[in-house]
Amino acid sequence: MSNFQLEDFAAGWIGGAASVIIGHPLDTVKTRLQAGIGYGNTLNCIRTVFRRESVFGFFKGMSFPLSSIAVYNSVVFGVFSNTERFLSQHHCREPEASPPRTLSDLLLASMVAGVVSVGLGTPVDLIKIRLQMQTQPFREAHLGLKPRNAAFGKQPAYQGPVHCIATIVRTEGLAGLYRGASAMLLRDIPGYCLYFIPYVFLNEWITPEASTGPSPCAVWLAGGMAGAISWGTATPMDVVKSRLQADGVYVNKYKGVLDCITQSYQKEGLKVSIT
């Protein structure tokens, strides 16, 4: 009998759509702080975006991730759950018994989910970040460019998600859609390991043995704690990924992951890793 279960994909789809709707404004602020110039801190960034672009500025680039991240989350969570279930049952000698969860199975399933997430998520993140970043003031003294602002008085680089995709493919080829993939791979493989493994064990620890399954409160608590652990460790490489993907809207500044890390550290020091 097949161990493949569609409800894992359905749960991931619903969670992905909800996360985009609720989290996109803060994601816009995060991206501007990581790859933008002149925002200072979170509160100043929020005020600046609102003053220049109104409330709609926080939702720039949301249409594409809303239609794609739901599918992306669905696949990632479905791949993790079904891979972990397959590995657990492969080790279980009794077909009817509840297969035990081992750290090695969870680790391998998380790594598989991380690789899949890069394949699906890199173009999604790239388009989202390009649309979020094209309206912020751009200047780079070291490159001899004058300050300019694509949002005010000049035509933005991209007219929407479809135009953004077409422009990137035309100017950079299909490989351009995977700009920042190496940084995302370094972020997502350890990131998903540090999300799924704590989530599973925290869920089991919180849930009483007599219960048939975790309660919604247990799921929310375990998910929140696992998310904090995951993002706490993934943020430095997320900064690198955002800068590599924002790079190229007007000019190519970084040659790769190592060059981005080197330039960022030289200009901002260790504080760049917690931006």
Automatic annotation (TrEMBL):
Pfam families for this protein: Mito_carr
SUPFAM superfamilies, per the entry: Mitochondrial carrier
Key words of the record: Membrane, Mitochondrion, Repeat, Transmembrane, Transmembrane helix, Transport
InterPro entries per the UniProt record, alphabetical: MCP, MCP_dom_sf, MCP_transmembrane, Mitochondrial_Carrier
Compartment annotation: Mitochondrion membrane
Coiled coil regions, renumbered to chain: none
Highest rank taxon of the organism: Eukaryota
Membrane topology: Multi-pass membrane protein
Solcar repeats mapped onto the chain: 3-86, 101-205, 214-275
Family: Belongs to the mitochondrial carrier (TC 2.A.29) family.
Record-given protein name: Solute carrier family 25 member 48 isoform X3
